[in-house]
Design a protein that fits this description.
79 residues, mainly alpha, 4 helices
């Protein structure tokens, strides 16, 4: 949600600009709740669909890149 906050700061609408400035410190530390519930992402289908699809597209893209060995798979050592 950090790119969304940065875009909101540059927005011409005063409400989005103010909300973006207030949410920036939290978004740097990956605290996304002020953005998710402050911007009508949850109940607005026009904003919820891209928000949901972006996660799906990134997950599918990462899976395909790992499948074709373009990027490495994550490994965790078992103690």
């Amino acid at each position: 949600t950090l790119p969304l906050v940065l875009m909101m700061i540059r927005s011409k609408e005063k409400g989005f600009s103010t909300l973006g400035k207030l949410c920036l410190p939290a978004s740097i530390f990956e605290i996304n709740e002020p953005v998710v519930f402050g911007v009508p992402l949850v109940m607005n289908p026009y904003m919820m669909i891209p928000y949901t699809l972006s996660t799906l597209i990134l997950s599918a893209g990462t899976y395909l890149l790992m499948l074709f060995n373009i990027i490495g798979r994550p490994v965790a050592n078992i103690p």
